[in-house]
């Protein structure tokens, strides 16, 4: 079973860039970027393009490139091979897709995600899961948003139970959590 690392932080914290650089620096096998964002127009399309450009820059700096796999739902079925080094970007998008997309698991979203993470760690040397810190934004949200936030927190706790090292990223720097060896 491979190692599991949870990288989390607020929007714009630099968590994705940190995770990419960290994985590329450690990878001894194929570096896989497991993209979960549903392609679309507007903000989603801009974010996808920004992340593609960032992957290219980090790959060039590390002397290697990511193999990108688009997988908005059912991550356990991704073409991850034994010994791969995998970056899952990101848990919040994946959860939203599993809850609300027609191909998603709906009420079974958490279980499908955890099953997928277990399947990936069975094959990968390292699985880095990037996630958002959405827990300090306040309250008074509609019930669906409250459920989403609660489920994302439950996923974070379950990853910790699975033995994940956790790193909080603030301003592009690792700021806390249990250090990753």
Description:
The two termini are 16 Å apart. The radius of gyration is 15 Å and the shape is globular. With 181 residues, it is of the alpha/beta class. It has helices at residues 15-26, 43-62, 91-100, 109-123, 143-161; strands at 3-9, 31-35, 67-70, 85-89, 126-132, 165-170, 173-176. The model has no long low-confidence stretch (mean pLDDT 87). A seven-stranded mixed sheet has the order 3-2-4-5-1-6-7, sandwiched between helices. It has five helices and seven strands. α3 packs across α4 (109-123). Helices cover 42% and strands 21% of the residues.
SSE map:
Elements: E1 3-9, H1 15-26, E2 31-35, H2 43-62, E3 67-70, E4 85-89, H3 91-100, H4 109-123, E5 126-132, H5 143-161, E6 165-170, E7 173-176
Helix pairs in contact: 1-2, 3-4
